[in-house]
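Good morning,

Attaching, inline, the backbone tokens for the sequence recovery test we're adding to the shared suite. The designed sequence is right after.
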């Protein structure tokens, strides 16, 4: 077991009987944010999460623009008092050793929101779920949704397997006016509708682990995320400092390159790539690995349809673009906020059509597009950010806008016109 997996978890096992305005399926950042804010509006919300809490999750690095949703959720003080390292910057390394100057977020925007956190996800996600509970959402854990029920094309409820207080399980159906799919990479609804579209340019996999005693930079740089491309650009590492002298280190590359039949075990693949990245090797020389390597793959996709009559998708269930810019939790929080406002308006007007519930999604998709284009540029073999900024220094702040998550700002994508239509190669 790795050191960030919770040793003990508990269950919330309330009654699910009753009249519900909204059922949220999934208690990660997207589902918990949606549930918290819809409950805050005064609607009756049931959140169903299949795990006990807290539960382990990959994805520890936040970006600055999460601050606004975290403020709306009332979580800033708790985060400020937490042991989570403060993140002031992100730094990129190319060719395995060439370290660029860090992007300090507060130089770009001198505001409290420019300092963010590196979080243990089990603890962070639990904070939001507890907040949803405090704001009046009824949270049931160990509750696995096995079917979303439809009447024609209108979602009407769910069939769910619940753990009871005596440890037995029962299956029941629960109805609501709106069903929110926040099931993360399980993408419950779009999978069943066969509507999940994989990005052919981003068929990547990741091998990651946790280390204690790695070399850390000092002062403001101590909590920085480091993104290090290996020699030849075939893979890259993340380095995310966590509390208790731990660091999360992951290596991402094309699936056949990292997991092909001749590549050996994940540990062997990781060691091979580490040898191609002296800047990371140096940081891990005296470090001790805690627990086994973990793997995940093929995580970049989007749903063809984001909303229907009485249902909508939020967070990773809607889509995910690659972990390189740590955009996932931000998009989950922001999507949860957008979704909650739309659901409130839809319930007030008595119009829970696809158009009303999904009214925020065109703007949201544009934001995702901005991250996606920057991800494409990162993986393109013939593109270098350093050369691009040398030639077009006017786009420096545009680039940082996207790195901090300010992706919904009008005009923020204009630098992509100067970049041209960059696409990384499709993995063989
Ligand atoms: C390799 C990798 C590295 C990443 N690194 C980062 C990072 O550094 N920073 C960052 O911001 N993001 C990162 N991400 C992305 C980030 O982790 C996700 O975008 C984020 O967790 C999405 O939140 P969510 O609430 O949509 O989904 P999740 O957090 O996955 O939550 C979904 C929840 O739904 C529950 N669920 C699923 N199916 C059912 C069901 N049938 N019934 C009931 N409950 C169900 C699950 O148990 C889970 O708790 C990374 C992703 C990957 C793949």
């Amino acid at each position: 077991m790795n050191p960030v997996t919770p040793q003990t978890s508990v269950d919330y096992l309330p009654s699910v009987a009753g009249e519900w305005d909204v059922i949220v399926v999934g208690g990660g950042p997207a589902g918990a944010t949606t549930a918290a804010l819809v409950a805050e509006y005064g609607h009756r919300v049931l959140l169903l999460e299949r795990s006990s809490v807290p539960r382990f999750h990959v994805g520890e690095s936040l970006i600055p623009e999460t601050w606004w949703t975290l403020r709306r959720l009332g979580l800033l003080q708790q985060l400020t008092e937490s042991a989570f390292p403060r993140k002031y910057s992100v730094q990129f390394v190319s060719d395995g050793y060439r370290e660029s100057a860090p992007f300090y977020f507060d130089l770009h925007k001198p505001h409290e929101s420019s300092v963010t956190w590196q979080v243990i996800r089990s603890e962070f996600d639990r904070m939001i779920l507890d907040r949803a509970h405090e704001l009046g959402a009824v949270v049931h854990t160990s509750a696995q949704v096995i079917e979303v029920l439809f009447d024609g094309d209108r979602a009407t409820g769910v069939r769910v397997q619940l753990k009871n207080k005596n440890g037995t399980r029962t299956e029941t159906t629960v109805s609501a006016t709106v069903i929110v799919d926040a099931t993360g990479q399980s993408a419950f609804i779009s999978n069943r509708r066969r509507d999940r579209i994989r990005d052919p340019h981003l068929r990547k996999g990741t091998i990651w682990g946790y280390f204690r005693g790695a070399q850390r930079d000092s002062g403001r740089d101590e909590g920085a995320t480091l993104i290090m491309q290996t020699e030849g650009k075939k893979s890259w590492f993340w380095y995310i400092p966590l509390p208790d002298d731990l660091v999360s280190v992951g290596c991402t590359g094309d699936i056949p390159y990292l997991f092909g039949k001749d590549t050996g075990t994940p540990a062997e693949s990781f060691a091979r790539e580490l040898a191609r990245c002296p800047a990371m090797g140096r940081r891990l020389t005296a470090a001790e690995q805690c627990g086994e390597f973990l793997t995940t793959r093929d995580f970049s996709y989007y749903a063809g349809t984001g909303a229907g009559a009485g249902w909508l998708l939020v967070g990773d269930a809607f889509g995910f673009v690659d972990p390189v810019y740590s955009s996932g939790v931000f998009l989950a929080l922001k999507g949860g906020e957008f979704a909650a406002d739309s659901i409130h308006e839809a319930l007030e007007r008595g119009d829970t059509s696809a158009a009303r519930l999904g009214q925020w999604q065109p703007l949201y998709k544009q934001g995702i597009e901005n991250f996606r284009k920057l991800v494409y540029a990162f993986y393109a073999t013939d593109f270098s950010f350093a050369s691009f900024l040398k030639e077009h220094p006017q786009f420096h702040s545009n680039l940082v806008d996207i790195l901090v998550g300010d992706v919904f700002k009008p005009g923020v994508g204009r630098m992509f016109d100067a970049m041209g239509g960059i696409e990384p190669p499709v993995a063989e």
